[in-house]
């Protein structure tokens, strides 16, 4: 009886990298959600549509998020982080050159650019509107996006107080609203154009007042 030679052992196949696959799916879902909101608007954007656009199953989305609002909020936060990385800076502080007016104008001009960027405008409007009627989403939107940004203004204004550029009795949290809130209101309600000239004027009015000098 002739024995057959043993077949060489097949090399073990590497296990699939599920973390990499999950990250690809998550990234595709982010991009799909942002694209659909920009193209169709928030009301017409659905979990089913996001899943189809991203090439994933609907159950994949529900495994990570509870609603389309949750998907969009996370996608929008990720978009902002990637934009900051691409620009080569992290939004962890406002400029502090010693010239408070110039620093505030520079930051508000960058904000104008962001608000007029179609990539940001559609999801930002959608989240702002939905946050009014969806209280949990509204709180999360404020906590994760708005409050960290407002705190940067507070820190910069406090720095100006320490150097004598602002009166020490001023509440920075109220003071920042003199230039941030009008910009947000004009953008949200479309009551007028937003531009560098507009935000520069807001800073001048806020810092120097309206009465004759």
Give structural notes:
With 213 residues, this protein is an all-alpha fold. It has 10 helices and no strands. The longest helix has 28 residues. The chain is elongated. 20% of the residues are buried.
Major pleated sheet: none
Rg from C-alpha positions? 24 Å
- Secondary-structure element order, as H and E? HHHHHHHHHH
Report the structural category: mainly alpha
How far the N terminus sits from the C terminus, by CA atoms, comes to 113 Å
Overall body shape:
elongated
**DSSP strand tally:** 0
Query: How confident is the prediction overall: mean pLDDT?
Result: 87
How many helices? 10
Strand content: under 5%
As residue ranges, the low-confidence spans are none
Map the helices and strands:
Layout lengths: L17 H23 L6 H8 L3 H7 L3 H19 L13 H16 L2 H16 L1 H28 L9 H4 L1 H13 L6 H13 L5
Helix pairs in contact: 1-2, 1-4, 1-6, 2-3, 4-6, 4-7, 5-10, 6-7, 9-10
Give a brief description.
The protein is mainly α and 213 residues long. It has ten helices and no strands.
List keywords for this structure.
213 residues, mainly alpha, 10 helices, elongated
